From TrEMBL:
It comes from Neisseria zoodegmatis. Keywords: Cell membrane, Membrane, Transmembrane, Transmembrane helix. This is Predicted membrane protein. InterPro entries: Gly_transporter. The chain crosses the membrane at residues 6-23, 30-47, 59-78, 90-112, 118-139, 151-166, 172-191. Its main location: membrane. Belongs to the UPF0126 family.
Length: 201
C-alpha cells in the first residue's frame, strides 16, 4: 500500500466522521446521517473524477466503502452522537481539518500523475478536498464552509502549490507526503486557533 493510498484512507475516515457529526448536529435520522457521511467522504472524489473524465474510483473499488462503514460503526459505538455541543464542535474541527488536508494531497497527486500544470494540480486538490463538504452543507441547508469560514480553502491551495513545486524539484516521496499531511493539519488548526482569516471586502 502506497503512502498516497494510506493518506486517502485517513481522509475518507476523517470526512466520514465530519459528515456523521453534521448529521447528528442537524438531528437527522439514521438514513440522513448515513447520507451526510457518505457524501462528505466520497463527494469530492466523484466531482474530481468527473472533471478529468474517468469513472469515479468509488464505483470500481470497495476500499472507501469499507473504511466508511467501519468508521461509522466505531463512531456509533463510541457514542459520538451523545457528545455535548462543544465536544461535537471540537471533534468536527479535528476530523474535517484532517480530511481537508488528506484529500488535497490525494487530489493533487492525481493531477501530478496526469502531468497537469500548476492550475490543474491545485484545482484537483482543491475540488477533492472541499467538494464533499460543499455537497453536504448544501444538503443540510448550510452555507458551505468554504464560503464562510476562516483560513479553510486557503490551506488546500497552499498544499496543492507545495505538491506541484515539490514534484518539479523531484522531492515527492512518502516522507514528504507525511510532512505535508502533518504540516498542513497543524497549519489549519493553528489558523483556527488564532482566528486567522483572509481580508474581507
Amino acid at each position: 500500500m502506497t503512502a498516497t493510498e494510506i493518506i486517502h484512507i485517513i481522509g475518507t475516515a476523517a470526512f466520514a466522521v465530519s459528515g456523521y457529526l453534521v448529521g447528528v448536529r442537524k438531528r437527522l435520522d439514521m438514513l440522513g446521517v448515513l447520507i451526510a457521511a457518505l457524501l462528505t467522504a466520497v463527494g469530492g472524489g466523484i466531482i474530481r473524477d468527473a472533471v478529468i473524465g474517468r469513472i469515479p474510483v468509488v464505483f470500481v473499488e470497495n476500499t472507501a466503502w469499507i473504511v466508511i462503514g467501519i468508521t461509522l460503526l466505531l463512531s456509533w459505538l463510541f457514542k459520538l452522537q451523545k457528545s455535548r455541543k462543544r465536544e461535537l464542535a471540537t471533534a468536527f474541527l479535528l476530523a474535517d481539518s484532517l480530511g481537508l488536508v488528506a484529500f488535497t494531497i490525494t487530489g493533487a497527486q492525481v493531477g501530478l500523475d496526469l502531468d497537469l500544470n500548476i492550475f490543474g494540480v491545485v484545482m484537483l486538490g482543491f475540488v477533492t478536498a472541499v467538494g464533499g463538504g460543499i455537497v453536504r452543507d448544501v444538503l443540510v441547508n448550510d452555507i458551505p464552509m468554504i464560503l464562510r469560514k476562516d483560513f479553510y480553502g486557503t490551506v488546500s491551495v497552499i498544499i496543492g502549490l507545495a505538491m506541484y513545486l515539490l514534484d518539479r524539484a523531484g522531492w515527492i516521496n512518502p516522507l514528504m507526503l507525511n510532512v505535508l499531511l502533518f504540516g498542513g493539519y497543524a497549519l489549519r488548526l493553528w489558523a483556527y486557533r488564532v482566528a486567522w482569516a483572509l481580508p474581507r471586502f
